[in-house]
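Q: I have three molecules that I believe assemble together. Could you output structure tokens for the complex as a whole instead of separate predictions?
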Amino acid sequence: MKKWRLKGVALVLVSLLLVLALSLAGCGGSKQADSGSKNDGAKQGTTVEFPTKPIEMTVLFGAGSGADLLARKVADLAGKELGQPIAVVNRTGAGGAVGYSYVKDQKPDGYNIVWNSNSINTAYHQGNMQFDYKAFAGVAELTTEPVSIAVKADAPWKDINEFIEYAKNNPGKVRIGNSGLGTFTHLTAVALENKTGAKFTHVPFGQGLAVSSLLGGKIEASSQLPAEIMSQVKAGQVRILAVTGEERLASLPDVPTFKEKGIDLTLSLWRGIAVPAGTPQPVIAKLEAAFKKVAESQEFKDFAAQMGANIEFRGASEFDAFIAQQDKELAALMEQIGMKKQ
Amino acid sequence: MLSSILTGIGEATQLSALVANLVGVIVGITFGSMPGLTFSTGLILLLPVTFAFDPVTGISLLVGVFIGGMTGGSVSAILLGIPGTPSAAATVIDGYPLKQKGMAGKALGMAVIASIFAGLVSLLLLILVAPLIAKVALQFGSVEIFALVLFGLSTIISVSSGSVIKGLIAGIIGLMAMEIGLDPVMGVHRFTLGYEPLQAGIDLLAAMIGLFAIPQIIKDLPRSQGETGIKIEEKGITNQLPSWQEIKSCFGIMVRGALMGTGIGSIPGTGGPIAAFLSYETNKRMSKHPEKWGTGILEGVAAPEAANNGVTGGALIPMLTLGIPGDPGTAILLGALLIHGLQPGPLLFQNNADVVYGIFAALFIANILTLIVQWFGIRLFVKILQVPKTILLPAIMVLTIVGSFAVRNNLFDVYVMAVFGVIGYFLERYDFPTTPVILAIVLGPTLETEMRRAIIAEGTYTAFFTHPISAVFIFLTLVMLFGPTVKDKIAARRAA
Amino acid sequence: MVKTAPLLKVIVVCFTSRGEKMSRGREDRQVAFCFLLLAAIWGYLTLQIPPTSIPGTPGPRFFPWLLVTGLVILSLVMLVGSLRQPADEKQVDADAKKDIDWIGLGTLAMFFVYVWMVDLIGLRWGTLVMMPFFLFVSFRLRNIMEIALITLVLAFGVDFVFRVLLKMALPMGSIF
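A: Yes, here they are, computed for all three components at once.
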């Protein structure tokens, strides 16, 4: 017994030493990296020393989702621009409210950024959080994604107008899957009803599940972000009848917009970077510059196209104004369908 | 065709891919076997690393974590009574009693063999008949998934050792817990008491960690002064491996488990835990000695372990043939493909056939590596039990916090874990089984959401009985619930 | 209630006839009462859920009501079952008094303090502060060297492996 104990103590001591030695080595490494980036800053002649340590980007949806993949690509590229890595951390739940609450409560020093989207509007108006978009300062808008209305490849409707006509004549017969009640895809389908007078049965699905139900013929149509349905479209199993964008999607040049088809419906899901309100202006400017470079890079352009997103860059001040305007529009839409709680 | 097969195999067997695969397997087994950590954590952790590699090497890494983690989950389930992943919760039922009998080595060996056997069977099915299985899987809409999940939930009856009523109450407690948060269909607040963090709901993994780990730690606390230096297991634990005879006797169970795992895994929105529990239940029913199940027999380890590894190949079927991830694990794999500019789905076979065969080869290699690493690791794992309680239990305590935090990077989940520790403690103290709670927590949200979604889509409550697949499962559920009683009654009448 | 009484009887017979052991009569009765209370609370909270719904489909209250009903029925069954076996009550009484698990309850309480500490000052320092208490009280260690070593290794080792080596996010403390 005694002997064992001595042995154990010795073992523990050795491992402790090892840990200490390694962590010291680790510190040394990161210090070197620090000084490296400082030099970069000096060269560029900027006044603030930012960033001097890794940045954390909160993503509101799960690993592997469309939002997450775009965010990871952005983080990867922007990290290289800034000279410090950007770590992506998924903080999911309550339609984004969990992640927003976390970032809002962090120090406004630019080291905690959030992959922002229309969720800031929908989560607030649905009553999931006590604060709205004003708790954050915009850094840069990067992409927009339209919503696509898709049907099975062998569906009888040739284009969106035939589809709407059928839905008008058979109210409630067309079941349209969205990614959850009160989500942007649901709002879009409702807006389509309002604009055309058609009547759908809205079926709320979780992420991605609407697609398998569409393929299995359990629902007639789906209202989804193009990223969720792109591979089925490319394989010819599913047809997108129209997208809600201002212009056609670069990756789907044959798919018309609603506007072209005479339906006045333009809605897009924007994504971008935001920081807690109160972050110093020079820090925002530095982040903005880095993300602008990302938006202009060919690598990101290619990736966004593959994910069914358009690049649409807006700088910090423009972005803030845009979010405010979007907030009003979505609030009005949600009010209309009785989803607005606050 | 042949050239792309060869290219794919070549890419998956190049040194960097092999090393990545091995690293993945080791990370997977480590994360899977540590109480509190799961392979999902490992996958998210390694996802950014894959950006730097070529697609097949990156996928090799993730596939290694996936297979290794699914297999490694059995280790802490058997040795400590704490499942390493929700899919291994059913393994505890017989695995832990086996350890208590001193047969930890045999149980671990059986788990590895069953896992890898099923992994390879499901891979074979994936390669040969994936489009066919995908077609069947697509027949499962909300109506059918609801019925399947209900059937899965009815296994509560047979996994609650002792009192059925207590098992059912425990199940209801689990279902109640999962109602907390935002309503999955309408988005209104339920049971949040106006407290904001509760909106996000109870996280399944945090609840599982608390429910199993905390009561286990307390049960193993040294109860007297002289006990401090003592190990978890004082009785002679052998690292004796299962004999060929024992493995052979479980062959039928492994085949059934593998097929069930592949089938259930291929239905998007279901997953490992339900496959494991249903396989346990079915094999128990078909066994010649069902009364021995739950007392610590190797069959009871083989059944769930075969099923949850069958899911690895099964979940890849909708991902590769349809571009739809079957579970959170494959969602991350799908993401990794997308990041590399590959579009998963039927086109992948046409445009990037070499990548597809690379993935198949990587899966095969991952299974073999997992078999080797874990089989030879058994001796090492069993040594965990020789670590004194005073070091092992505090370490598990810290790991529960690390693990429950890592799920969503949220401290609230750590508190949830602690609360579930208390629930688990009191349930156990009053002889309520904890397995039904975890079954309910895993299946509850799907059950409710799919039921309500089905009624919205079908517009009628009777859809569950008019759709053939669903009707079959509902019938099976009723048989499960009332079958034994009816059988007893008939037997009694005959005797009279 | 008129309708539920025979139903209850059926269920009691259904499930208690399967070789059920209900030896701890009194304890079961108390537990059953606790669950009835829980069902009442859950029922009250269910009434607080806004009754919005898509017409013709079960709303957010549907499932909670189902569970409350189930819990009430099962608790009543348990209650009835426990009343049927009053015979060995005295012995159970003695058993129940004997073992209040102070160490277990104390450890649970300390665990909550631990989690709270982790919340406040992070995993590393929280472990450093709380682990000695666990080791001394729950694990009955008395050797100061041993306590210090295990605490140090756990606090810094876990931090090193997960945060530094694996780059995982760990709780860093809300007051910093």
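A: One point stands out. The CA atoms of residues 349 and 356 of chain B lie 6 Å apart.
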